[in-house]
């Protein structure tokens, strides 16, 4: 987070030097993730954003958001049986089924107005880092230790035991200006990291975050001719 | 700038196509581990012409027809000095039935007993332990068919007036396993071969085994084993 804050300050600090204008706003979104078996899930998200307009219709955009996407049905079951030398037996059963992902995200993108500087359409391309990724679904861990031993059973949410917790990917987005302070936005994102932790000794399930979204970009603040 | 947009769009399209592969609904990974501990031998009772085969092997309970045997190792103090006892037993919630055992006496001059260094020195490959009691010897105990009861009725090499037989260390290796309660356990896995005679215990003669002696022998041949001694 420190690096991201420094980048944000750097961008804002450079505004007076290079920018034609600076704007900031808010975007609520409806998400359409591509989930297990290439079907379309549901979700929603929201972000605060800032844009620095440079010359020739170019710009830089930074946004911080949160989103929830659901409809996944990816699962793993690990069964491990061990006979120990003193004759005791340890059974381990771990079952996890991912249904929903929630995450924070931060985007850094380059923008370009389509065709010319007066075009109502702006296109953006950039990188996204998602952090604090948590999952909901079913998770059960049972460790049964036989012969005078203990039996432990726990049920809890999907956590860092089986999920990676962050993601890195690329996004493209388009903004169509509807009114002076309101644009229609559409975005596509592809994450490059499997959201399941890598499992030792076998190929576990894979879930890559792929999302489409549409939303409204409300400009709440703008300065011109800096 | 436009080329950046086109490049990103191309990468995004390819990545999306790649990530939309179908996944099985449930990935199942099953693994099991049984340590390489075993003892096998052939034995001949008095009056028996053919040898009978016997094998003890750690196994999964409730799977297949095999019994679940436990391997227990630990130091014991005896009248002849400190020794390392390895027992193979069938353990239920109610009874422990002893089936087989090795008792190795430490060399008399040893000071730091049962450490990794001591055990590796004691079980040096090629070393021979003669059957019997005392420093540098091994006593083998075995409950053969008909003598398997909840009372320890194992026949022992040391029950013979003149113990006869030997055990040879074939190889050793460091071995460790993760115990769910005690954590990582480390020890020495010892492979050995043995052959000789055991004094046949007869509970009808005496229930006290401490000074039991006999001439009746149970003959063992083609004995091999892999047992674990944990480091102190």
UniProtKB/TrEMBL annotation, chain A:
Residues 1-19 form the signal peptide. Keywords: Signal. It comes from the Bacteria. This is Outer membrane protein beta-barrel domain-containing protein. It comes from Phaeodactylibacter xiamenensis.
TrEMBL record, chain B:
It comes from the Bacteria. This is Uncharacterized protein. It comes from Phaeodactylibacter xiamenensis.
